[in-house]
Specification:
InterPro entries: GAF (IPR003018), GAF-like_dom_sf (IPR029016), HATPase_C_sf (IPR036890), HATPase_dom (IPR003594), His_kinase_dom (IPR005467). The chain is built from 22 helices and ten strands. With 645 residues, it is α+β, with helices and mostly antiparallel strands. A hairpin with a 2-residue loop joins strand 4 and strand 5.
Length: 645
């Protein structure tokens, strides 16, 4: 078998593996955008390798390879920005111009000069673009990897390493092509080998976690301090200085292997433990840990970001894969409940075991008297552990410590077993206690800051209302002028049209806005009376049917009369129906249903619109001045919630 034939066989194998992985990614979950983007990246790699395998036999194969290689940078950058990112849309929005350039410029170069062997200005430009985009993708992948910890890192690291292999090979082949002034045929085998390795890593990742739907909090600024940027710059400088291609290739392979080994949490923990045992006096470098925690938590005011940082720091410090920060949440000043503030495990309703809320709440209640961290597997477990043991094991809870600031209990931190199964000793518990005290102080400061911010928002309401009243006065003056001119210009059709236009647009809009804002200046006073809600729903819908062309569907079951405030509950239903109308297009579908679930009456309003993000639904839906609508005030749902409560 000749060298050329061997390269073609490798390229065909890489193409077959890539298309198989792409199909597997789509088969797991097509509804997630990241799965579709991943499938497009792998399909693009398959086309690129297929074209490379056919390039020695047909000119069309080289054209297919060029077209696929020009499409890969944009798709790779899009995947690196979306994968495992919480609020991925914000990251895409921040990188939109870079991604647009990564899509448009390489394809434009290909269309302008489809053939450039040996390289002309078009070929150099294309290779430099591919090189730049590959470096940007590596930096984004590194940023995601840095944000992960514990079990989440173990689940996603092979995907990140696989993509890293692909784009590291892009850096190598593009730099060699620019340096030599032509594209050597040997690069086909290198790209094929890198693609095969990447596919093997993707398959290993799918064994650990089938779904790519992982959410991490990652800071948005571009990581100019990324190690991948520095390594690429050093490599390019060595290449200019005369580093042989074979040396760069071996160094790159060694770097990939070293990265895979060092990303193992077991290896990292054991290395740190051996260093602390045989070189340092104590088990931990307390000065470094204290400095790290202080630096990482000092400038964070967002509570969710702070909890994610805390979980990652605790996981790295103790070599524990599953760390969860639980916060005491007081939604309506009635009773406390625990919510997940941050975790190194991607918990959701599907993965959490049944009965977890009651179990965690009972565990929190039992741990309140304990000032030191607790080992739930110790002989004292019977006096501390509450709830079924199977649920705690499913949630990977072995250790726990309460977060107390002064006399206020803010929540708790739960930890799983170490990867090495080595139990905690007294020194570990002492450090965990010290960390929990510092974490509690940081959480308390963040909560106070958020409360002050909310109070300032409410204080600005009076100022906002003043502006609206001023606008109403301006509108009244405009209407007064129109009334004065009405006897003179009434016979003018243009005048009458302008008058109706102003009234229909300005008066209605200002009245609605002012009526909503007025709800905040006074406490809501309810006047209860027995009422059949089905009658009120049909009455409210009849007032809105003429304003839109949506299709209404009813499933109103018989209801007993219940004591409600007619006007307030009508405003609640009106707000919900308006939101549904605005969320759908002109031919949208809105479904209304009622049911009697003693002692409650349930009203369901459902539409086929675009919906809202889970994070917004869970944390911001009923907060004032929080909205997903470009023209919204974020007041309607807050008022609806206040009326119902």
């Amino acid at each position: 078998m000749t060298h050329t034939t061997l390269q073609a066989v490798l390229a065909w194998i890489a193409a077959a593996l890539s298309i198989s992985v792409a199909i597997g990614g789509l088969a797991v979950a097509t509804r997630h955008a990241v799965h579709r983007i991943f499938a497009l990246v792998m399909a693009c790699l398959a086309l690129m390798q297929l074209g490379a395998g056919l390039s020695a036999q047909s000119i069309y194969g080289e054209g297919l390879r060029l077209l696929a290689s020009a499409s890969l940078p944009g798709l790779g950058l899009l995947f690196s920005v979306c994968f495992a990112r919480l609020h991925s849309r914000e990251h895409v929005r921040a990188m939109r111009w870079a991604m647009l350039a990564a899509f448009v410029l390489p394809l434009g170069w290909i269309l302008a000069q489809p053939r450039h062997v040996p390289l002309n200005w078009s070929g150099y430009g294309l290779e430099l673009l591919i090189l730049s985009c590959a470096v940007a993708v590596l930096a984004q992948l590194e940023k995601t990897l840095r944000a992960s910890a514990g079990r989440v890192r173990a689940q996603i690291k092979f995907v990140l390493l696989g993509m890293g292999c692909v784009f590291a090979a892009q850096v190598y082949t593009a730099s060699q092509t620019v340096l030599l002034g032509t594209r050597p045929a040997s690069l086909i085998g290198i790209e094929a080998a890198a693609t095969i390795v990447a596919n093997m890593l993707m398959i290993a990742a799918s064994i650990r976690r089938r779904s790519l739907d992982v959410k991490l909090y990652v800071a948005r600024p571009f990581p100019f301090h990324a190690v991948s940027l520095k390594i690429t710059l050093l490599y390019l400088l060595l290449l200019i200085a005369g580093l042989p291609p074979s040396g760069a290739l071996w160094a790159g392979g060694l770097l990939v292997i070293t990265t895979i080994v060092l990303l193992s949490d077991v290896v990292r923990y054991e290395s740190r433990r051996l260093l602390n045992r045989y070189i340092f006096r104590s088990r931990y470098d307390y000065r470094r840990i204290w400095t790290l925690y202080t630096q990482r938590m000092a400038a964070i005011v967002d509570l969710q970001e702070l909890c994610h940082v805390i979980a990652k720091l605790v996981s790295d410090t103790f070599g524990v894969p599953a760390v969860t920060v639980w916060l005491v949440h007081v939604p309506v000043e009635t009773h406390n409940r625990l919510v997940i503030g941050g975790s190194t495990v991607c918990w959701d309703r599907q993965t959490l075991p049944s009965g977890w809320e009651a179990t965690v709440q009972a565990l929190m209640t039992a741990m309140r008297p304990h000032t030191m961290p607790i080992d739930l597997a110790s002989p004292l477990r019977q006096r501390v552990q509450e709830g079924p043991r199977e649920i705690l094991q499913a949630m990977r809870i072995r250790y726990g410590t309460v977060l107390v600031s002064g006399h206020q209990i803010l929540g708790m931190i739960t930890l799983s077993d170490r990867l090495t199964r080595e139990p905690f000793v007294a020194e570990d518990f002492d450090l965990l206690k010290t960390i929990s005290d510092q974490v509690a102080a940081s959480l308390h400061n963040a909560q106070v800051s958020q409360h002050l911010l909310e109070m300032r928002r409410m204080d600005t309401l009076q100022t906002v209302s003043t502006f609206f009243v001023h606008d109403l006065k301006n509108l009244a003056a405009k209407l007064s002028l129109m009334v004065q001119n009405l006897p003179v210009h009434y016979d003018n059709p243009a005048f009458r049209g302008d008058m109706l236009n102003v009234i229909s647009k300005s008066v209605d809009k200002m009245n609605v806005m002012c009526s909503r804002l007025a709800l905040f200046t006074h406490d809501i006073e309810l006047h209860l009376a027995e009422l059949d809600l089905n009658i009120l729903i049909r009455e409210t819908v009849s007032e809105l049917e003429g304003t839109s062309t949506v299709h209404w569907h009813y499933e109103l079951l018989p209801l007993p009369p219940i004591p409600v405030d007619r006007e307030q509950i009508k405003k609640v239903i009106h707000n919900l129906l308006l939101n549904a109308i605005e969320a759908v297009d002109q031919n949208g579908e809105i479904y209304l249903s009622t049911a009697w679930i003693e002692p409650w009456v349930r009203i369901t309003i459902r539409d086929n619109g675009c919906g809202m993000a889970h994070e917004f639904l869970n944390n911001k839906l009923f907060e004032p001045f929080q909205t997903t609508k470009s023209q919204g005030l974020g007041i309607g749902m807050f008022h609806s919630n206040s009326s119902c409560l």
